[in-house]
Please model this.
Amino acid sequence: EVDDFEIITFNSGGTGARPAKDGLDGTAFPSGVRTMPVEATENVAPVIFWKKELRPDSAGAGKTRGGFGQIMEIGAKGDAEFAVNAIFDRVANPPKGRDGGAEGAGGWVGLNDPNGTVLRTKGFQVIPKGRRLLLKLPGGGGMGDPKARDPELVKRDVADGLITAHAARDIYGVEVK
Model:
């Protein structure tokens, strides 16, 4: 049996685009801190981070794009329930774009189960035994007309798996093979 424990993790989305630079990926705003490695958390608490990666197509499109949000999947070690005190933002109201830029993808909080069970974005709630918490953290809003984005930057994002070739073509006007 495990004693009670508490961890704090920054569940960071993408920041908004800047006039001359893309937004930052998976970064807490306004502090600008990044989260510590999940392995450090797993080493001190009975939790497993099954997934922590950038969320494709979550950044708002623009001449400069927003930062990408993250997907995080968290479960308890063994067959135990755990609780979360949720304080998630930008779920009902996605981050806005500016000057013709698109809004970033809104967040989502739920369970990784066949029903896609949605959880509240605020307050204390228990994750049942054997279930995993799934967080789809928001992307930042874009700035400026997406068609004015440097095509090489669009191609790089496709090659890195951050946007789809479909988004490159339909949103940015860049054909990627």
User: Anything to note?
Assistant: The beta strands are 47-54, 70-76, 82-87, 108-111, 122-127, 133-136.
